[in-house]
Design a protein that fits this description.
The protein has ten helices and eight strands. With 312 residues, the protein is an alpha/beta fold. The protein has two domains: 1-30 and 192-223, no CATH class; 35-187 and 225-298, Rossmann fold, CATH 3.40.50.1820. α8 (251-261) links the parallel β7 (238-243) and β8 (266-271). The termini are far apart. Mean pLDDT is 91; it is low at 305-312.
Length: 312
């Protein structure tokens, strides 16, 4: 009897330890750092309107800027929604968000920049590695819709996590005519597995538990966070950008996404010498030219199109 109790206690303790470690690993998906918003569009000579709007579903209060191009009216404006990365904000100086916005406005695009949940000046809420953040982008797209902007006049540009959110959202929900994704991961579970290397390799045993705890505790379906699957099942045109010296998102993610993108109306661009989400800062003129060329091809044209026709 004592032996049975000892075994039962040992099994219970082991199970408790497994669940506890799995929960801690799942919580890692929700961590984010709120960095101060020190600049605004006036820093780069742009007029703007400060707005607030709600995320889709959970209706979180989010903050943003509307930057209207002087050469267009609300009736004919083409818009670009900019989505920042993890632990960043709408004016992210690391990727050159505001200078890029200036280039877009100069080319005639109006720009919508906003802070995702828990970032910048938006309402605090745990991060979710791209799962719940899709609600934030949908909220931004719906805000433009409420202004009378149609889907065919909207493009989305996302950096890092923002690139993944853009691919996921527009690949499943829609809401935009084209997506530029810079330095996105291809699949969350693959990314998590890659982080369990070297001395952390034994943690792979906790992957099933982590997946379960993410769902139970935080409502995150890790398997659903797969930009490459969203792209492969969508006909939204994508310009995929990645830095050749990216030391944060391994090159396999670019290759997997490129395979999905190139099967449809997509383009890929590997920027040699650029680090993670550093393409614009590495070659600003070339970057702006490439992004604008892509957006001009798809944004502001009829949404009914042949995705295999690159001349549209």
């Amino acid at each position: 009897m004592k032996w049975t109790k000892a075994v039962g206690f040992g099994l219970g303790a082991t199970a408790g330890t497994y669940v506890g470690i799995s929960a801690l690993m799942a919580k890692g998906l929700t961590n984010t750092e709120r960095r101060p918003l020190l600049d605004d569009p006036e820093t780069v000579g742009l007029d703007y309107t400060q707005i607030s709007f709600r995320s889709a579903g959970d209706r979180l209060s989010l903050s943003g800027w509307l930057i209207r191009a002087a050469t267009s009216t609300d009736e004919d404006a083409r818009w670009v929604v900019v989505v920042h990365g993890h632990s960043a904000h709408r004016a992210d100086p690391e990727v050159g968000a505001l200078p890029l916005a200036r280039d877009l406005v100069k080319a005639g695009y109006s720009v919508f920049m906003f802070d995702m949940r828990g970032c910048g000046t938006s309402r605090a809420k745990p991060a979710s590695a791209g799962y719940h953040e899709q609600r934030d982008l949908i909220g931004a797209l719906r805000y433009l819709e409420s202004m009378g902007v149609t889907e065919d006049r909207i493009g989305v540009v996302g950096f890092s996590l923002g690139g993944a959110v853009a691919l996921l959202t527009c690949g499943t929900y829609g809401g935009a005519a084209a997506v530029v994704s810079d330095s996105s991961f291809a699949d969350l579970e693959l990314r998590v597995t890659q982080s369990m290397s070297g001395n952390l390799t034994p943690l792979k045993i906790f992957k099933p538990g982590m997946r379960a705890m993410a769902k139970i505790l935080f409502g995150i379906d890790m398997r659903a966070v797969s930009p490459m699957r969203a792209v492969s099942e969508s006909n939204v045109p994508v310009l995929l950008i990645h830095g050749g010296q990216d030391d944060i998102v391994p090159m396999i993610h670019y290759r997997l996404l490129a395979r999905a993108v190139e099967s449809g109306a997509g383009e890929t661009w590997l920027i040699e010498g650029a680090g993670h989400a550093q393409g614009y800062r590495t070659a600003p003129e070339q970057y702006a030219e490439r992004v604008l060329s892509f957006l001009d091809k798809w944004v502001g044209v009829p949404i009914e199109r042949d995705p295999t026709n690159s001349d549209v």
